[in-house]
Every structure is written in C-alpha cells, then in structure tokens.
Amino acid sequence: MRLSPLDRKLLRDLKRLRTQAVAVAGVLACGVALFVMATGMYDSLERARDAYYDSARMADLAVSVVRAPDPVAEELALLPGVNALEARVSGIGLLDLAGKSDPVSARLVSLPPDRRPRVNDVLLREGRWPNPARDNEVLINEAFAEANALAPGMQLRALIYGRYRVLEITGIASSPEFISAVAPGALLPEPERFGVIWMGREALGRAFDVDGAFNDVVLRLAPGANARDTIAAIDARLARYGGRGAYGRDRMLSAQFLADELASLRTMAAILPPIFMLVAVFLLNVSLSRLVATERSNIGLLKSFGYSNAAVAFHYGKFALAFGLLGAAVGVVTGRLIGNYMAILYAKVYRIPALQFDAELHIYVWAVVVALVAAVLGAAQAVRRATQLPPAAALAPPAPTSFGRLGATVERAARNLDGKTRMVVRRIARFPRRAATTVTGIALGLALLITSQHFPLSMNHIVDVTFGVAQRMDATLTFAETADDQILTEVARLPGVFSVEPMRAAEVIFTAGSRQRRDTLMGLPENAYLFRVLDQKMMPVAMRGDGVTLSYNLAQKLGVTVGDTVHMQATEGQRASADLLVIAVVKPYLAGAAYMELNALGRTLREPGRVNAAYVLFDSARREALDRRIKELPMISGVSFLDSASASMRKLLSQGSGFFSYMFIVFSCLMAGGVAFSAARVTFAEQERDLATLRVLGFGRREVSYVLLAEIGALLIIALPLGAVLGAALSRWLMTQFQTDLFTFPFITDSAAYGKSALFVVLAVVGAALAVRRGVDRLDMVGVLKSRD
Amino acid sequence: MTAAPPPVFRLENLRKTYGEGEAAVHALRGVNLTVEEGELLVLLGPSGSGKSTLLNILGGLDRPTAGHTYFRDLDLATAPDAEVTRYRRLNVGFVFQFYNLIASLTAAENVELVTEIAENPMPAREALALVGLAARTHHFPAQLSGGEQQRVAIARAIAKRPTVLLCDEPTGALDVATGVHVLKAIVTANERLRTTTLVITHNADIARIGDRVVRFADGTIRSVEKNPQRISPDELRW
Ligand SMILES: Nc1ncnc2c1ncn2[C@@H]1O[C@H](COP(=O)(O)OP(=O)(O)OP(=O)(O)O)[C@@H](O)[C@H]1O
Ligand SMILES: [Mg+2]
Q1: Is the domain of A758 the same as that of A788?
Q2: Set of chain B residues whose Cβ sits within 8 Å of the Cβ of A410
Q3: Are residues A113 and A203 in the same domain?
Q4: What are the pLDDT digits (tens) for A540-573?
C-alpha cells in the first residue's frame, strides 16, 4: 500500500511531535482510565453483591423475638408475601481467645440440623460442616478466622448465657448476612474482636435456654410482595411472643454497611471521573488547537497547491483522531487493568465471591467517543482559523506576528526590564488567551490534586474528631440485655475503672406523616462527658428531655424540622409510644440517630432507670486485670476499646473507598505532571525560532533558557493561586455530594495539603521545563534560520 | 614596511559532510581561504555549492567535519562550545535572508538585545541611523516593510561593532531598490567600522561591490578574483 504524501506527512508529524503526543494523549488516557475504572468498578461491585445476595438467598426482612414456639414459624411461612423463611436461635457470646487478653465477642447463629438454611445461606470455605450429633462443633466466619489466625481443628472458649463451653471449629464459612460482621452497638466491622459462629440449632437452643422455640427470624419476600404489609402481618403474629418488629435490609448492619460503601463508591464514580475527563478533554482540545496553529503556513501552502478546505480539514482531522485514539486506547486498557487489580483487592476486602471487573460496553463507548469528539473539535477550531486565510498568505513572506505596546503603565514598568524579560512580558500580554489556557491547564491540574486529597483528609478528620473529641471513653461495655442502672455501681468497681457514664439505646420506629424509619434512640446524661454529640462547629450538643434531637440524615428521611412532631414506637420492653417534639437537628460527622436526655428517655419508654451500655475511663496499667474480670461477667456481652476501634476504622478507610480515593490522587498527580509537561513543551515549540535567533546572536544557553523558563514561571505564578481557589471550591462542592447514611463529610482546609499539592505542581512544571530546556541545547540554529516560519 | 596584520580568517582544507555512507552529501570538499581585516568579500555560486555551509561554519553555527577554521588564533573547528558562543557574542554579526527579527520586540529593542551583551556597542539609535532607519526605531517588525526589517537586522548585527559581518543572501527576498538600500547599509558598515564582511549572493552584479569575489562550485572554491575597483551599490543595475 502506498501512502499519499499527505498521510506520510501525517505520520512524520506524529513522529516529530511524539513527546507532545505522549503528554497530551497521556493526560487524556488518565481521564479515560479513571472513568472506565471507577464506573466499571462500581457496577461490578453492585452486580457481584446482588448476584451473591441472590444465589445465597440473602434475607429481605429480619425480626428478633424474645421466644416463640417452633410451630409459629410454620404459620409465619404461610403469611402472604413470604417466599422462604428460616426461624433461628441467635445471640451474643463472649469468647476467650488464647493469646488475646482483650475480650472478643461473637454472634452465634443456629444452623438447621438436616439441611442448608433456606434464607441467609452459609457457604463453606474450608473444613467441613459440623456434625449435628456433636453439640460443640461450629463454623466461624472467614474474616474473623483470618484476623485471629483460627483454623479448623482449633478450639474456642465461649461464655454463652453465663456458662462456659469449649467449641470445636470444624470449618470456615461466609454468608451474605455477614459480609461485614458489625458488632451490636458498633459502627464498623472489627474482625479482630467480633466474629460469627454457626452451630447446630439444638445445641444453641439449649445454650440460650430457648429449647423448642426460636428467637430470630429471617425471610425472603415473594416477588412483588409489599414489604410493609408483610412486616405488619409478621409483627402482629409475633407480638405476643415479644417480637421486636421486623425490618428490612436498611437496618441489617452488614447490608447497611455495604450499601453505604457502595453509595460512596458510586458518588466517587459518578462525580470525580467526569471532572477528570473534562479536564483531560479541555487539555486535549487546547493542545491540539495550539499544535495545529503552528501548522498555519503549511495549511496555506496546501491550499495554494489546490487542496480543498475539506481535504485540509480531513488531513488535520486524522491528525487529531490519532491523538484521541491513542489516548482513549491507552486509557481503556489501563482502566481495565487497574479495574482488574482493584476487583482482586475488593474481593478480599468485601469477601464477595465472583467479584470480577466488568465494565459495560457503553462505558467504553462513551469514553472513546468523548475523547475523539474533543480531539476533533480542538483541531477543528485551529483548522478553521487557518483555512480562512487566503492561500497567498503562505506564499508571501510571513508577516511577523503583530505586537503592540502594552498599556502605558506596563510599558513604563517594562522600560527598566532587559530585552529578554520584555519579550516574556509582551508574549504573555500579546496572547492573553494562549497564556490563559496554559494557566487554566496548570490551575486545573492543581485543583484536581487538591480535590482528590480532600476525601482522605475529610475521612481522617472524621476519625480524629470521632475518636478523641466526640468520644472520649477508653472503652464501651455493652450489656447482654437492658439492665437496671444498679449495674453501673458494679461497673465502677471493675479493676482500674475510675469514671463511668451510662447510655440507653432503644430501637424504635419513628413515624412522621406517611414516612417511617426504624432507628436508634439514644439516651445520654444531660452533660455527657465521655460520649458527646458534636455539631459541625465542634460544639457539644446538650441532651434535653423536653423533646428529641434528630440527626440531619434522619430528619431528612422523615421530612421533619425543628418544631415538628414525630411519633415514636418502641420495639421492645414496654413498647411504649409517644409523640415527641423535634427540638434540634444536628449534623454529626458519623452515623447520627436520635437523642434524648437519659432520664427523660427512661420515662418516655416507661422503663426508668435502665441502661444498655456504659462508657468508662480506666487506668491503662490495669487493662489486663480489667480484661480478665470482664471475661467472667455474663452481663457484659461486648467490649469495644476506643484505641482499637479507631485503628480498625483507619484500616477500613484505607482499603475500601479509601483505596479508591488514593487512585484519584495517583491519577491527579499523573495529570498534573502531563499538564505541566505539555504546557512547557508547547511554550517551547512556540518560542523555538526566537530562542534559536537569540543563540545565533551570541546569547549563551543559560540566557536563552531564561526566556523559556521565565515565561513558564510567570504563568505558573498566576496559575497557583487560581488552582488553589478552584481546588477549594471543587472540594467544597464535592463534599456536599458525599453524604451517606453513615458519614457527613466536612469540608476542611488543610494548608499542608494545599502546600503539598502546589509544591508537586511546581516541581512538575519546573521538572518539565528543565526537560524541555534541554531542547535549547539541541536547538538547530542553522535549520531554523533557513526556514521562514 | 610594516608587518601585515594577521588575517581574520584562515581556512585550511575545510570539509563538511552531511550524513554517512551512500547518502553522504559532501557540502564542502576542502576549502582553503584567507580573509584579511576590513575586506568585503562576495561569495558567488550555484545553489547547493556550499556557500551557506561555509558561512555557518565561519559564524560558529556549525562545525566542519575536517580541517581548520582559524579566527585569528581561535580554531572554531575544535574550540569548546562556550568559547564559540563567546566568539559569536563578541565578534560576529549575522544577517539572513529571512531577517529573523524577534516579533515581540521593537526595532530599537531588537538592536538593544545585542548591545546589552556586547562589550563596546554603539547606541541602538546610532546603529539604526547608520542603516537609515532613525525614524522607525519604535516600530515592531510587523509594522515595517521587508527591506526595513532587513535593515533592522543589519543594524542589530553591526551595533556591537563586530569584527566580522556575515550576510547570507541579504537581498534574496527584496526588490531592486530595497536591495540597494540594504547593500548600502552593509557597505557603510564595512567602510565606517572597518568590519570584515562576507556577503553571499546569487547576483553576479552585486559581486562588484566587493574587494574580492569568491566563486563556489560543488563544495570547492573555483576562483578568487580581485575587483579592480569597488563600485557603490547606487551604481548597480539588475
Ligand atoms: N542539514 C543538511 N543535511 C544534509 N545535507 C545538507 C544539509 N544542509 C545542507 N546540505 C547540503 O549541502 C550542500 C550545500 O548546501 P548549502 O546550503 O551550503 O548550499 P548553498 O550554496 O548555500 O545553496 P543556496 O544558494 O541554494 O543557498 C547542498 O547539497 C545541501 O543539499
Ligand atoms: Mg544558501
């Protein structure tokens, strides 16, 4: 095949401009890769989760009950809307792990003796199923086994319902019900200190003293069933057995947690990559239009030979497409590779089987089409400007670019400048648009860098505030059941404990108009000291008894504001109900619910003087003694230490959406670097002729480099503050978009992050400029002088 | 009898080859030439005969493949880069066919660009007056005609009072009358400043303004003739 001369010119131009091509296409590739990776990753995760929920028959509804006789389960299964149902025994036990002084707790869940669970199936990962005839054989969940190095064949000492038992681990399992196992009262999974244990129904029933009965039901809805009707029917049927009210996946801790993770992934995938794409596309557009502009005289020449405007446009269209295609192709491939890698990581973090990266076709199509359109548009502007010239313009000696004097004040100031500096000043002033695009490019690079750091910064801030400013206890002791407040005296007598603060938590159903929401109503002392609810200004919110304080999230879901009334229905104990005045709406960073003053809550629930947990401060030198004592106390079902909770929160943030956000940082670094390089490179290309002339006139390399570096430096100085302001605005907007059920992300100004980002951009630009400066050494003085322009 | 001053340039068996092997182009095939102080030398020759190559080597823009180029005692063929840059800065003035002015600087500023770094320059105004452009000092290149632009380039080249003035087809892009103007500027510089001047041209008539005419062909010097009498550019007809 013989290439036409024009096509050969195209190939040669591409080769000549290869460093520019790499920078421009590289920036585009970053945008495309991030877009493909983020969007695809979210889709893949959601699909994998749904597939897992489906294949392992994840429950749609769950309800716990004090004690219902077995035959009731059969009646429940026949209720309309119920597709499959599993009645189980479930409860919390304390474990004593060898080599671990801190107490560990676990949720114990019964397994049917003769079959797999109909709902919330259990998948055996390792080992074998427990023998139904042996009442001490158990399965444990994967994350817990890994975190504590437990394997089949090992033994566990468990304190269940006040009695010690030795359990034999026969296998490691996982279940959609516990993708992340979150301890009751805790906010995050802590596999080191909370696990799931499956054991035979009969043995567990005896252990919890519910022989011939069940205390926990999980069920799947029939397709098209109305969840609310089914809930009502179940609640009615279970009322006399102490049913605590059925609830959906939105209140199942693991599902809620995963949904929250997915929600923040989705926000990230939906908002950031398009911004990256936009920036990439902008740069591609600008770079191409500047590149094509340098071809101006060639375009005129081609036209003078008789090429039509269309033929010329087509030629440069292909030129642009080559850049666009290169960037898009590299981006798609890189996006896929990173996606595959992340899928492997996420499969480990979330323990979702069959998690594979698989972006849908339309994602690729979008990415490629947007890239190509941007490329062609960028070239088109420059081509149109060039083809409007009469061809004679190329044949006549080129008119030098017309420069004018700057404003009188600038000129007066410029009078004292040397010629080289004056060149720089006039070039910038003469081409404000060209200077503006370079400035905008660098500023956007900096803004992305700042913005991408904001998410982890905000997260860290949340952790710092939550564990340290809001929560100041050393440990939280959760009681096995709602207890009389006498228990606080016992807690105060525990070894090392010197400060105790009570907490009451009731699971209630709030109703406002037609909206309903099941949530936790927390009772805290008026001036709680160890557990404080903070508003966005970091001020502690005083607990009041004359009404209820709602978190912003909950208030929104109920559609109420201060002054409205909400109806509260307790799901357990006396099942009191009351109308409560909303006296305040607060916006805590972490998982807010509803709050009241402790004693007022007791009165409202018609159960005064009762508590669910105690926050304590203790002498850390006596931690071991405290640990030992707690393990002997059946009334305490779980302990959470602040230090380890904060550590596991940080760990969690680093691997889930946290890892995702680190990808953004990496990409924005790449993009900022690419932007810097192409800015330096294009500036050099535009100055090349002047620089060569200066060299011919006897200026040394240093002096000539100064002209190049001064222009880039001047633009950089303008770009930095602009980028910082842009970054701040973008971060602020982004944080308003990132609001999940669990987190409210604060906008914070971290000067270190701004400084680091700016420093990175400066280094990138200086590095790029120095790399380009090497071109000054290789300037072809003879060649430049032979040609016209 | 006083001792003759040393020559400005002494070229010994100068060779320049572009490329290698079969594709090699021998632009210069052994050039020997001596240029005396204050001379005005005209280089004539068909296209591709190596004139520009020679001038570029003399100006320190390029290096020969073999042989020596002495500027007084400095061998431009082997001197270190910094030394050659210094040579250009202090001793050489260039004028090119395509002017090569900096578009973002005015006429005066283009000249000042050079006087700034020279050791004993003349004021920019004076240099521009010398080429007859005293009235246009504050115009940008885009506001000047081709001939005016070329004269600015000459002013820029002579403002530093260079030892040598190298002109590669300075009138190539100009009409007759304008060309005469430009040549007069060059001759003026040669006469008033005693600048050793080399001018490349395709025009045999122009050759008559020089002291000697060097004819090039195929990378070698075909002949060197002494003009019995230099004529003024005003008398040229072409
Ligand atoms: N960079 C280069 N690479 C290869 N060959 C070159 C290069 N520069 C010049 N030449 C060759 O060297 C020879 C001499 O070129 P030069 O430019 O010196 O000619 P010239 O006498 O100035 O011609 P003209 O009057 O057309 O300007 C030519 O054959 C040319 O093709
Ligand atoms: Mg030539």
Answers
A1: yes
A2: none
A3: yes
A4: 888 988 999 998 888 988 999 999 999 999 988 8
Using CB atoms within 10 Å of the CB of residue A114, give its burial: 0 to 12 exposed, 13 to 18 middle, 19+ buried: exposed
Our mutation pick for probing the ligand 1 site, out of B53, B61, B215, counting the most ligand atoms within 8 A of Cβ, is B53
Choose among B188, B183, B152: nearest CA to B169: B183
Helix (H, G, I), strand (E, B) or coil at A475: strand
Q: Which residues of A touch B92 (CB under 8 A)?
A: 698
Do A192 and A226 fall within a single domain? yes
Query: Considering the domain boundaries, does residue A47 fall inside one?
Result: yes
Domain boundary among A189, A222, A252: A252
pTM of the model: 0.72
Structural domain range at position A691: 417-472+656-789
The answer for A246, left when phi > 0, alpha when psi is -120 to 50, beta otherwise, is beta
With beta carbons under 8 A apart, name residues in chain A contacting B59. Answer: 696
Whether A94 and A241 map to the same domain: the answer is yes
Distance from the alpha carbon of residue B25 to the mean position of ligand 1, in angstroms: 9
B236 and chain A in contact, CB less than 8 A: no
Closest atom of ligand 1 to A783 CA is 1
B197 lines ligand 1 (CB under 6 A): no
Residue A24 lies in a domain: yes
Mutant choice from A410, A696, A777 vs B, greatest count of B C-beta within 10 A: A696
Please choose from A782, A784, A785, A788 the residue to mutate so as to test ligand 1's pocket, defined by most ligand atoms within 8 A of CB.
Answer: A782
Mean pLDDT of chain A: 83
**Amino acid identity at B77:** A
- Hey, what CATH topology would domain B9-231 get? Rossmann fold (3.40.50)
Of A205, A191, A188, whose CA–CA distance to A108 is shortest?
A205
Contact: A698, B114; criterion CB under 8 Å: yes
- Environment of ion ligand 2 (residues, CB < 5 A): B 52
Nearest-CA residue of chain B relative to A703?
B117
Give the residue, out of B20, B31, B42, B51, with the most ligand 1 atoms within 8 A of its beta carbon, to mutate for a pocket test. Answer: B51
Q: How far apart are CA A126 and CA A146, in angstroms?
A: 12
A466 shares a domain with A444 = yes
Question: Does one domain contain both A604 and A683?
Answer: no
**Domain stops at, among A252, A278, A293:** A252
Domain count, chain A: 4
**Whether residue A315 has pLDDT greater than 70:** yes
Parallel, antiparallel, or unpaired for β A82-88 and B66-71?
A: unpaired
Is the torsion defined by CA of A430, A434, A436, A442 positive or negative?
negative
Residues A281 and A369 in one domain: yes
CB contact under 8 A, A782 and B114: no
Instruction: Give the closest ligand to the alpha carbon of residue B216.
Output: 1
Beta-carbon separation of B141 and A788 below 8 A: no
pLDDT digits (tens, 9 = 90+) for A285-294: 777 777 677 6
Judge if the beta carbon of residue B172 lies within 6 A of ligand 1.
no
B177 burial type by CB count under 10 A (0-12 exposed, 13-18 middle, 19+ buried): exposed
Nearest CA to ligand 1 atom 22: B52
pLDDT in tens, chain B (238 residues): 456 678 999 999 999 998 888 888 899 999 999 999 999 999 999 999 999 899 989 988 888 999 999 999 899 999 988 888 888 888 988 888 777 777 777 888 888 877 877 788 889 898 898 888 888 888 888 788 888 888 898 898 888 889 999 998 888 777 788 788 888 888 988 998 889 999 999 888 888 899 999 999 999 999 999 988 888 888 876 5
Query: Helix or strand or coil: residue A155?
Result: strand
Q: Is B163 in the pocket of ligand 1 (CB under 6 A)?
A: no
For residue A141, give the DSSP letter. Answer: E
The secondary structure element, H or E, covering residue B56 is helix B51-58
